[in-house]
Amino acid sequence: MVSVHKTAFDAYVAAQEKIINDLKTRLSSLEAKYSDLLETNATLSNKISELEGKEVSSSPKLFSDLFKRKKPNTEENNILNAMRIEQKQEDKKSKNVVIFGTKFTEDTNVDKNLVKEISECIGFDPSKVKYIKRFKRKSNEVESTPLLVELEDKENKAEMLKLAKELRNDRRFDKIYINPDLTFAERELNKSLVALRNELNRNNDSSTTGYRYVLPDNSNETQTASKNTTNTKHTNKSSISAKRKSVTKQNELNSQHYSYLSFWYTNATSLENKIHLLESEVADEDPDFLLISETWFKETSVANLIGYTLFRKDRGTRGGGVCIFVKTSLKASEVVYPELKDDTIEHIWCALQIGCERILIGCFYRPPNYSKQENTRINSLIIEASNLVSKGCFNDLIIFGDFNYPAIKWTEKMYPEINPFDHHSQIFLNVVYDCFLSQMVENHTFQTSDGETTNTLDLILTSYPQRITDLAHKPPLGNSSRGHHILTLKYLASKSTEKSFDNRKFNYQRGKYDLFSNKLNSVDWEVVFDSKDVNTCYNLFVDMYHTLCHEFIPKKKLSHKHNLPWLTQMTKRLIREKKNLWFKYLASKKNTELLRKFKEAKKIVEKSIKEDLCRFETDLIKRSKTNPKLFYSYVNSKTNVKTHIRTLIDSDGQNVTDPFEICQILNKQFESVFNKSDETVIPPMEARTNKSLSIDPNLVFSVSNVAKVLSDLNENKSMGSDEINPTVLKRNAIAFSTPISILFIKSFQSSEVPNLWREANVTPLFKKGSRLSAKNYRPVSLTSIVCKIMEKLLKKPIMEYLLTNNLISSRQHGFMENKSCITNLLEILDFLTEAMNIGLPVDMFYLDFAKAFDSLLHKRLLFKLNKHGFDYKIIGWLRAFLSNRRQRVVMGNSMSEWVDVTSGVPQGSVLGPVLFIIFINDLVDLIKSPCELFADDTKFGEILDEPSKHILLQETLNKVSEWTRLWVIALNEDKCKVLHFGHENPHYKYTLNGIEIKDSDGERDLGIFFNCNLKWSTHINACVNKANSTLGLIKRTFKYHNAETISRLYKAFVRPQLEYVVQVKMPTLKKDIKTIESVQRRATKLVPHFRNLGYHQRLEKLNLTTLEARRIRGDLIQMFKFSKGFDKINWFNPVIFKNDSLNGLRQCPRSHQLTIERQLVKNCEQRHNFFVNRISSIWNRLPKDIVESNTINVFKNKLDKLNLTSYHNNAKTSNSSISYFDKSTNQKQYGKIRNNNIIPDLIFNFDYKNDLIHEKVNDFYCEIEETNISEMIYYEEII
């Protein structure tokens, strides 16, 4: 006897009773409507009889005895002639469409151009237009007449009518519409239908009935659409044209409250190798859910689909695994109910919230060899899921999966048989019926290699079978004919109640910019802007911009269907042909010829997909060099983890999921960092200069300067709150330059800034830590593009003034000309290594300012600008630029309220960094010790050669603390650290604002990890790990690894990670060198055809060099930049060139003028391998014409023609001279290296034979510390 859960049974009985009651109510309603219709029919029949004035004739029907008479009568002849005329007209007009709403003209060329523009607007091929004719107008007062267009065939007519709806998206053609060319009878019928519709609507009150009557919608013929938002009542065309018996009413319940979701399921048997085939299936069918068993995913598998959220559970070993893909537009989340958790079973659950319903969706894979215990667990999970539905946690349950019960024979409307009998199958069947679930799959789902289907292994279980329709079987995924069928179905669910947004956006690449520019040039901007304030002028400018965008730039609809960018129309057609062959094969009862054609089509489709994908990836890689966003966007589309902010924790510790509330929480967090201190008292400050900066706005903001900046704009930048796109500005640079120049001059002279320039849309960017905390996000502001152009033009004279008058400290490297991260790090490393060389300890402080850019006060900043010599006009404009700003957080279609920005410089602006370095500039005056700045990143230290030095450092810290108090900018004491360098460092303790500064063994400085022994192994390992991750990402993301693809990707995205500031972190240990080189070895093996070649052969075929040679090249380029003044470096231990040496380096006629002197280093590996010391040997050997190059690019080109590896090896064994200090004479001497000894050049004036020289120079040479001469590769060569 089958046991039934009472709760489940009661729920089932209640559901059945509800269905019966609903049917009774609907039956009563239909009976009442039927009675009303009979009465209406009788009334209409009486009216027709009255109008005709006579009884219906009882004469024989027309054509009834035609075969007897063999000749039609007069009335029959008239009917036949009318039919022939109608058919002739229909044939003639079958290829025609009529365009209404166009202006009358007698010029046929104008009409042809108009039809061509309309065709291009809707995406129709103008070459398919065969003939154009303009209808004559009845009188001269008529302004527009229809335009008849004949097309090549009926298919073209259907295509044009289908695309005609796009006209409403273009403001040029929004009053033009396209209809089919109708025959006389069709026009008369249409008139009668319109008249009847109008009469019915006059007698119908839609406000009370809730509906109105409209003409039947035929999407294949017309583009007519009702714009009324009330419910509609459709008329039946045939009944109206005949006797107008009744009018059919649309089912309001289904149209308003329900919609169909599409599901797609299969057992993939290794999806990772078929992911591109799955993408093509998705692009063609666009399902809402994809459920897949036997995914065979590994931890590193790239399995994401564009536009879908992935829930997956992997087996961990080979085989198995299940996953669910859900469209990102749907609210779906993974189920975390403890009742449904079982790590031993391959299953995954997700919950869909749609409308007022919650639906539980599951996917299972049950291997055939499951034990009794594992089968019991699966059955228990199904029971628990059903119980959750019974308890009201979910409204419905639907389960997909490969359950592997071949013994169960599922048949339509019959209890399934189990043959041969299997105990596990019987238990499973009992569970299905105990839970009152229906199994929807009735046909076999597994297909053998010969095309025959056997066994129903894949099942679909649901609580409400009435909701499932259109269940279909499709061929297996992949090229093999053997496998599991793809199952597709439609599921009736509640409609989502979310607010819909405009899903159209401008297609800037297809804009008609010639017409755009002509329209702009026709405007007299001087007159438009005359006697108006800046804000009004800019609003007029923005209005004109948006008006012209609507007029000359078409819009494209953002479909919810996520099309694959790489799938061509030809491949889509082949996919459809393949599916048609499959359905023909099924309908033909397994015709072998059709099966053969289907298999051939399947191979052709797979080949076409591969070619499309390969072509797309190659093109994307080429374009990514100039626009890296393309690469990262493609990679992100393939990653499994999406970074959407779905949930945040509010101040009360509650989880918030509403998008608007999330925006509000983030905006409140970003607002909290603003400084709201009193600015009434500003500390005194001495003037930095007696000079003044003033600019001529007519010169700085001239039309030519504005046009140049506009033409150089990056089209990939994001828009600000004024929604002005850089693509439009760039492609109309000349036309826009005049109004923008007038605006800039007007703004500067009046010290006013448009309100739209003060507004910023903020995007939250995750830093690190928990994604649920708003504190772990930082704001990225998107400001007006036009404002940035004015900032850029204003920045140039400001920077020229600051640099010419040396107003910015030479220790500031951030955002400064001839300065960079490399110059900053080389200066600090020069100081630290020299201290280590002389054996003295160093204490180095790393200071961290809390929200420095966001917290500086505006009045104090403007006061400092005045002390730097800025005149009142510039300060006035900057005051307007900084004050009254506001921001909001924008995420997709959700946005927060505006909040005021009371402090800080706008991040994302052009002038923001410049203003900040001016503000922090005087901090360097307080620090007498060696210090370096990069914007707000500040570090300083001192050599502890005297006991009092640590006291000096503490006093400096106190001065810095006082400076931050006076200028109201806070330090983050917890993040401020001190590093103690040197073996005998006393490790003094220091305080900042009364808080002890924490000691640190290492700190990350501008992307480089500095530790106290200045060894780079830790940082190199981190770089290698990051580069390997990127390499793995490339391997998983890109399907085809040819030589060109791998070479481009490696050079653009992997190698730069290994070579970042390599001049600072040059590896010297063999293990580090091999570790770095291993990344390139691994990269070159990604090309399948190169894997069996040697490393150097692979490099040659990929046109690469070893990373060691690249590092030498980088060192030489950096030395060239320094020697030519392209980079400015303040060395702690100055570099001595040949012309600067007091003693004069011995010259060789072939040596160049920039020969450098190498420092002799003993007992200090860090100083020995410092940049200047290691590069001197090969630098001094460079040919004169290379070193004397005028530009960096010329130097690089000449350098690349040298074999740097060979050059480098020659430098190791050359007869080199080095400089050293002779303690016996207290003078600098020169000598050569022999057998780990330095031999003075004085001795080389005598005969020299092998090692006998040692007997003559015992008093002169000095030992080189335990270093084999062959390993000393960086000694300086003088001659």
Automatic annotation (TrEMBL):
Organism superkingdom: Eukaryota
This protein's GO CC annotations: extracellular matrix
Composition skew (Low complexity), residue ranges: 224-239
InterPro entries cross-referenced by the UniProt entry: DNA/RNA_pol_sf (IPR043502), Endo/exonu/phosph_ase_sf (IPR036691), Endo/exonuclease/phosphatase (IPR005135), RT_dom (IPR000477)
Coiled coil: 13-54
Residue stretches making up the Reverse transcriptase domain: 746-997
Entries under PROSITE patterns matching the protein: RT_POL
Span of the signal peptide: none
Pfam families the record matches: Exo_endo_phos (PF03372), RVT_1 (PF00078)
GO biological process, one term: larval heart development
GO MF entry, a single one: catalytic activity
Keywords: Coiled coil
Sequence segments annotated as region (Disordered): 207-247
Name of this protein: Reverse transcriptase domain-containing protein
